């Protein structure tokens, strides 16, 4: 997991054309993350989401969009996926590794980088 998800609240701009053909721009700020789950963690559903995702079922967090951090994409044992809100789950087991990218530490000696291959002698 060297590509850690960053949950910064950096504003971004959405541009669209309205029904009259005028270009509109909206400035948005992502909400704060209100849960501790990260991708690959095991969570338990607290309420029924659908027939395939029942209350009490253990699912895996597949991904989290940084612009919508409180909506999680989860996957059940059959490989089916759906989106749930953070209040529809309970963190059961943390699977994510504590990498330097997620912990904020620098471990440049332990992580090989393909970007620095040109610096090595032949």
Give a written overview of the molecule.
With 122 residues, the protein is mainly beta. It is 3% helix and 34% strand. A hairpin with a 5-residue loop joins strand 5 and strand 6 (81-85). The chain starts with 11 loop residues before the first strand and ends in a 19-residue tail after the last helix. Mean pLDDT is 81; it is low at 99-111.
The helix count comes to: 1
Question: What is the helix/strand order?
Answer: EEEEEEEH
Mean pLDDT: 81
Secondary structure: number of strands: 7
Which fold name corresponds to the CATH topology of the domain at 31-102?
SH3 type barrels
Q: What ranges have pLDDT less than 50 throughout 5 or more consecutive residues?
A: 99-111
Please outline the major beta sheet: 5 strands, antiparallel
Give the class-level CATH name of the domain at 31-102.
Answer: Mainly Beta
- Main-sheet strand order equals 6-5-4-3-7
Q: Strand content of the residues, in percent?
A: 25-35%
The outline comes out as elongated
Kindly provide the radius of gyration, computed on alpha-carbon positions and rounded to a whole number of angstroms: 19 Å
User: If classified by CATH, what would the architecture of the domain at 31-102 be?
Assistant: Roll
CATH superfamily of the domain at 31-102: SH3 Domains
